[in-house]
Amino acid sequence: MRVSAIGCTALLLLAVAACGGRDSGGETATGGGTAAAGQCAGQQTTGTTDTSIKLGGIYPLSGPASAYGDIPTGIKAYFDYVNAEQGGIDGRKVEFVVRDDGYSPPKAVEEARRLVEQEQVFALFQTLGTPSTTAVWDYTNQRKVPQVFVATGASQWGSNTEHPWTIGWQPDYVSEARVYAQYLKEERPDAKVAALYQNDDFGKDLLGGFKKAIEGTGIQVVAEESYEVADPTVDAQMGNLAGSGADVFLNITTPKFGALALAADAKNTKWNPLHIVNNVAASRTVLEPVGFENVQGVMSATYYKDPNDPTWDDDAEMKLYKQKMQQYAAGKDPNIPYHAFGWAAASSFHKAMDAVACPTREGLRDSVRNLNNVEVPMLLPGITMKTGPDDGFPIESMQLMEFKGERWELFGEVIDTRAEFGPPTTE
């Protein structure tokens, strides 16, 4: 059995118990006559009953970022496990409805409306991608629907105060950029960097954060090239970057283009930079088509456990994850890291729901913004979820890793960018 979220006080648990008396299919909590129940009165319970909770997720199951389609598989395996063996979350079995937006922002809006207005979900749990999430968050905040733990690291999810119903989960791109900058300051203080980035808020966020982090150092960005998600290749951009004389290549891409850039780098035997690929394109499934022999020494950073790393062979959570993936996602490979990502995100949602004062949309909104060093077993040791009134970034710690042989190997210590650098900013 999974342990409830750390940090729930006795008062909080009493409040949850007292928030009963909800109309099982209604829009608001009715209250049951006690002070705690009154606290929940008038709050939204759309998408929940006494025995169920419906969530909606939007992912690119097709299109240029379809590699991310593995994530909801891990999420569903987790919820199926909790439903079957723990009776759901606080007695409510979770229904997870997944929609495909093809990595198209207009399609994401269409699917969000369908989930909220037709499916009447309790919350959007994950919308993947910075462009799609940006397209949706005005709508969800106007409707006061939680859009929680979105699968994108854009810094705006934590810094924008005008969208309180939306929050990220993974380390933001500015924090990730700081990790790479910190490594170069220590190991290559005179580095010349060439960058390839996706021409949207995602790519600009990470590159902008990196430039900010290297200000006042000897590190220079000597060349940068962008690409569009509809581009067939990045060969021309890679050719230009190779001619820059850079000794570090910063690869800011989604999986398809990450693989294209890795392959182009491997083909160019005259250019041999330190290759840093951002976390969202660092999956083993991205590297494998390029050939493991061609990606030796590539660097990245992570925050959750890699199912391919023997370090976790005896880890209780990894054992549970692999066992339940085989049981509830038969035929799916548990060693695909995106499955583990989904499992970790679903576990994080479970923790947040365990800590709600009221089992309502407002309760979830407040819970995810009041996380007090919550431990999630699939995260790396030393990494917890923490948020507060002035901190909308649940995870801001990462650890560097290098690809060796056929897997990533962690090195160094976990870097808490919150403590090292302060709140993320690109300005």
TrEMBL record:
Listed Low complexity bias regions: 36-48
Organism placement in taxonomy: Bacteria, Bacillati, Actinomycetota, Actinomycetes, Streptosporangiales
Family indicated by similarity: Belongs to the leucine-binding protein family.
Entries under Pfam families matching the protein: Peripla_BP_6 (PF13458)
Domain Leucine-binding protein: 52-404
Signal peptide span: 1-20
Region called Disordered, residue ranges: 27-48
InterPro entries, per the entry: Leu-bd (IPR028081), Peripla_BP_I (IPR028082)
Domain of life: Bacteria
Protein name stated in the entry: Branched-chain amino acid ABC transporter substrate-binding protein
Organism the protein comes from: Nonomuraea terrae
Keywords from the UniProt entry: Signal
